[in-house]
Design a protein that fits this description.
heterotrimer, A alpha/beta, B alpha/beta, C alpha/beta, B: alpha/beta, 10 helices, 38% helix, 25% strand, C: alpha/beta, four-stranded antiparallel sheet
Chain lengths: 286, 256, 227
Amino acid sequence: MSDDYNFAYLDEQTKRMIRRAILKALAVPGYQVPFASREMPMPYGWGTGGVQVTAATLTPDDRLKVIDQGADDTTNAVSIRKFFERTAGVEVVTSTSEASIIQTRHRIPEEPLSDDQILVYQVPIPEPLRFLEPRESETRKMHALEEYGLMHVKLYEDIARHGHIATAYAYPVKVEGRYVMDPSPIPKFDNPKMEMAAIQLFGAGREQRIYALPPWTRVVSLDFEDHPFDPSKAEHPCALCGAADSYLDEVITDDQGGRMFVCSDTDYCESRRAAGHRGELAEDAA
Amino acid sequence: MTPLLSVRNITKRYGPHLGCGDISFDLYPGEVMGIVGESGSGKSTLLNCLATHIPADSGQVIFDTRADGPRDVLRMPEAARRMLSRTDWAFVHQHARDGLRMGVSAGGNIGERLMAVGGRNYGTIRAAAGDWLGRVEISESRIDDRPSTFSGGMQQRLQIARNLVTGPRLIFMDEPTGGLDVSVQARLLDLLRGLVRDMGLSAIVVTHDLAVVRLLAHRLMVMKDGHVVESGLTDQVLDDPQHGYTQLLVSSVLQV
Amino acid sequence: MIRISDVSKTFTLHNQGGAEIAVMAGAALQVAPGECVALTGSSGAGKSTLMRMIYGNYLAAGGAIHVGDTDVTRAEPRKILAMRREVLGYVSQFLRVVPRVPTLDVVAEPLLMLGAGPDEARDRAASLLRRLRIPENLWPLSPTTFSGGEQQRVNIARGFCHEYPALLLDEPTASLDAANRETVLSLIEEAKARGAAIVGIFHDEAARNRVCDREIDVSGFTPAKAA
């Protein structure tokens, strides 16, 4: 740990300010709380919102896991993990069950989280109504007055154009029967997992918003009666661990059109293989 | 009989300039009132005050709500007022672009109000949208096209369909036939007359086209410099105008 | 049914130096149910003006005009509209309709306005159009393109579609051939027989003598020339 920084990079006043925003967000699930987002030593789009929430949440005893698209070993995940190793000196882990705080971009881990864990999402555009209503003054009013018809216009357009709801990620949800919320760009496959034991915090750095879901908050994906929400995923088992219930990445293996489907959650895949599960393309027993 | 809308002493100033002054009238269910006058006479200002698009300086706009009877719309909570303007009220803008979502398909534009009041069945919403496209003479095959690919006249018809789909009781119209072909104007006037008759619809129509008010409006208010100079039965005001300004207005129309 | 007392009418031409033209004073008239009264007088004497005042189309400057329970000179616009819907029909010399509306619907509209079922209203309209010899192939077309005589007959059919308790007829037989003239006169006689109070303008003297019970010369209501 470097002594040149305050614990977890941010000064104590800033962390307090962010914690107040987090508490407010937890008190009003799904509501976007504005906060004074700081300049972080990384570009916008690299998780500045999530990093600030994580920084305000970390204690020296925490074990931090960072994933990007489910993987612990991608650039974004590695650099954020290094950032907190250096500025907070906390223990970093890749095992989902061992982590106390998990910062994520675009996925929820496959393994169910428990009530002593916190999941922190990096959010690019927190406003689910933005693509249809560009005025912030108007979208705030729409949230305040619960005017969410426009959200269904978006889904209507999807069905009209594609024959089904083609929104596959950042699929809008209604929280505890009140606020419509963007779940960040997680696949819709993950939406049902959002009713979980862990606390979920969402940070958008550029847009300066924090929102949250307390444990076991009711989260309903929007849909039509005759076009119900369908959290489907690719119809394959994982080629490495054989899991049939996990979200898969398609990996191109050569330039002849060869491809394989593998778990996007690398920790999940590895622990399954360690337990002896094998997919059809797995190299023989380790 | 309770008026659907009671307007009392509505005044709006723009600094020292009077937008409209001390306007009062009652509108009963099924009545269509025309407001005529030249540009700057205050007719659009009045319409926008009534529709709560701009705040009036003083006065009351009392609407006979379905749930709670007569209520002053200007003093309603914003949520109730916005709900009213999505359900029982409609506003047809002069420029269709102001009243449409240009990035959303024709079907989505029409369906929006249905979804806003809780419509959650795609098939039903789409069927209603198709039906209303037909009623405003737009081919149902255009249901998934965006309004930006429509002609000006079609956009205006789409706007009217989008507004009428929830079966509102009061429609505000600002120069509704302004940009339309003569033949389309006639069809729309006929459509609007039919709706007024069949649904007991009321309307306030701002226009400078005396032919439109003669065919559509039961009553007429003539405005000049922010004030109502004459009002009465449409045919009486047009055929036997009492005020000098109205006489000038009527005699200025070219006879075809 | 129709009671007119001391009605006067002035036109003020604000854009021509505020000239005031008094065209009628002291007009009085009573029409009982089942009675037909003809307005006579030379052209410009004020026959049409009086008729328009009864209909509420022109504002009376003074006096009272009662049609049934409605005082046309004082009633709110919606009361006058209700009176026009239910009580007082008017067959003018000009047909004014929304373009592109089929003839059958133009004729049926007065009944539809009263809440009649579309089928019932169209049946009634069809029987009138048939009596007035409008060829059936014209019914789906708008009357705006019809000849003057055809338009006049459509106008009459529209005026007789609802059985108004009171009727105003402005030259109902003008520009009609003998057969149609006969039909219109029988329509008027039928209306009288069911108790309608009728005020009419007939230049056709034979027609006037046949259907009218009395004549009122409106020249008698011409005001004395202002000094």
